[in-house]
Structures are given as structure tokens and as C-alpha cells.
């Protein structure tokens, strides 16, 4: 989570959202306008004599106490016909979120290999404006 200062040093941004560590979801504590961003770095193992051509995609999904889960942004990238392939997919969205909303990533295709090293795959949020 990105909790860098946004120009207002009196704002306690850590109170705007919390990370639910066991579920990997970000829960919104204060309604407002947020920038949500993510990057997923995909790798594919050497598939001897089996060149593959595939799509890798994920969504930033929000669940609300009052409604069902919905994707608010989707990132999709094509990995070419190489024996090994590494591709990343980054997206960001400015979105109004309500108290109790939970954000999380959903991998759309099964059996994908994702590199989780620092700087390769990440998920974050920045507060732009809190509702009064």
C-alpha cells in the first residue's frame, strides 16, 4: 500500500484503508477518490518443443457490503511464441470507493506462473480525496 504524503501533512492516510494480510484484500475505511494500481509479472517455463501462445490477464476487483464482486479494471498481455517468455501487465485506475469496499486481484486464466519478487509484481492504493 502506498501511504506517501499527498501534499497535506495533517492527513493520516493510514486510516483511509487497511491491508487484510490473510486474504490479501485492501479494505476501505474512509469513502473517497483513490488511485488503485497493480502490476503482475508473468514467466513461462521452457516448454521443450511445445511453443505456446497465450494471454495472461488479471483484474482489480472490488466487493462491497451492498453488492456483488465486480471488476473495475482489467489488464491483459499476450506472450509470444517463444520457448520462454516474460511479460508484465500494469494498470491503474482512479475510482470512488465507499466504506467497507474491499479490493483484490483476480487472475483470470489458470496455471499461470507469476514472479512475486520485489519490484516485479505489486498492488497498491493512494488516497486522492476523502469525502467530507
UniProtKB/TrEMBL annotation:
InterPro entries: TNF_dom, Tumour_necrosis_fac-like_dom. GO terms for biological process: immune response. Signal peptide: none annotated. GO terms for molecular function: tumor necrosis factor receptor binding. GO terms for cellular component: membrane. Pfam families: TNF. It comes from the Eukaryota. Residues 1-128 form the THD domain. Belongs to the tumor necrosis factor family. This is THD domain-containing protein. The lineage of its organism: Eukaryota, Metazoa, Ecdysozoa, Arthropoda, Hexapoda.
Amino acid at each position: 500500500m502506498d501511504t506517501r504524503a499527498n501534499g497535506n501533512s495533517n492527513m493520516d492516510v493510514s486510516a483511509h484503508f487497511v491491508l487484510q494480510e490473510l486474504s490479501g484484500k485492501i479494505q476501505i475505511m474512509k469513502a473517497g477518490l483513490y488511485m488503485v494500481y497493480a502490476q503482475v509479472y508473468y514467466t513461462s517455463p521452457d516448454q521443450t518443443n511445445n511453443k505456446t501462445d497465450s494471454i495472461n490477464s488479471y483484474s482489480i476487483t472490488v466487493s462491497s457490503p451492498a453488492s456483488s464482486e465486480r471488476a473495475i479494471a482489467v489488464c491483459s498481455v499476450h506472450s509470444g511464441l517463444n520457448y520462454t517468455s516474460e511479460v508484465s501487465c500494469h494498470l491503474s485506475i482512479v475510482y470512488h470507493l465507499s466504506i467497507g469496499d474491499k479490493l483484490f486481484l483476480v487472475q483470470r486464466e489458470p496455471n499461470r506462473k507469476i514472479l512475486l519478487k520485489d519490484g516485479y509484481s505489486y498492488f497498491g492504493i493512494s488516497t486522492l480525496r476523502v469525502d467530507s
